[in-house]
Amino acid sequence: MDKVVLGLSGGVDSAVSAALLKKAGYEVHGAYMDITGEKARADAVATAEYLGIPLEILDVGPALEANVKSAFAQSYLRGETPNPCILCNPTVKFPSLLRLADTLGARYVATGHYAVSRDGCLFKGRPANDQSYMLCRLTEAILRRTIFPLGGQEKTATRAMATELGIPVAAKKDSMEICFIPDRDYAGFIARRGVTPPPGDLIWRGAAVGRHQGIHRCTVGQRWPGLFDGRKLYVAAIRPETNEVLLDENEALFKTHIRAADFNWISGAPAGEIPAAVRVRHTKVDAPCLARAEGTAAVITCADAIRAPARGQSAVLYDGDRVLGGGFIE
């Protein structure tokens, strides 16, 4: 019987994943990463007890600070829009699970993500709840040891299965916030770390038309409140070097060329330019494109302009349902 270490978060997805793995004949060991508070920890403990699996509480605080929280704050101070889950998965979550797996002699690790891992490749989950975008920086080596039990089903089926099994967290709501910012106050999180960018100028057509309250409160693509000369304006660019936020009309936000730095090609970089599809945020909307490797970056040319690719977000490339990899938009 193969052993598997499952990331047990205290939510319904990982709980049902545990049940499915047990049903498939695996010896399941739960691992709870102790970062989300007493309620989630209590839910993970209750779920593990109900399903009859051992549970290890992992202290990932130092790793989360070094690899995610600090990088998240610094990215906003550079005028970027980071995604902490994409930072966390390859640097904290999966390495922590794999270390425990090696200690226990477990062949595999697993999580409740809605995606598919097969032969060292990553594929989309079902369209309604696909989470492959968040996993784009996992390596082939990690994916060869990873199981996603929920990859082939939709969340509605997961909920129904949890209820049928009587799992304690069957009715628990989905967590939509960042685990280390439960109140969703990103600006407050950055301020509490001791650095608060000052107010600065809003620029439209080369002239100051108002004031912003800190670049960390802005992201490319967001609608700016009010009207300017009768027009709706949006954040078009953020200039941390001058502390300016550039505004423009919606039509100016569309781009056809994207460069993604530090690109993780899961199965190796292509030899030349290839047809693909690109996703620039977690919206499940893919745009046809051509892509090529250029050093450690990917250069992406879209067939049709896409709206507001923001620095710091991830550009993820797909070949059909297969994830080719992802990097950070420059």
Summarize the structure.
The protein contains seven helices and 17 strands. With 330 residues, it is α/β, with parallel strands linked by helices.
Features:
alpha/beta, single chain, globular, five-stranded parallel beta sheet, 330 residues, 17 strands
Low-confidence stretches: none
The whole-number mean of residue pLDDT values reads: 93
Count of alpha/pi helices: 7
Rg (CA only): 21 Å
Element string (H = helix, E = strand): EHEHEHHEEEHEHHEEEEEEEEEE
Give a structural overview:
This protein is of the alpha/beta class and 330 residues long. The protein is built from seven helices and 17 strands. Strands 12-15-14-13-16-17 form a six-stranded antiparallel barrel. Helix 2 links the parallel strand 2 and strand 3. The termini are far apart.
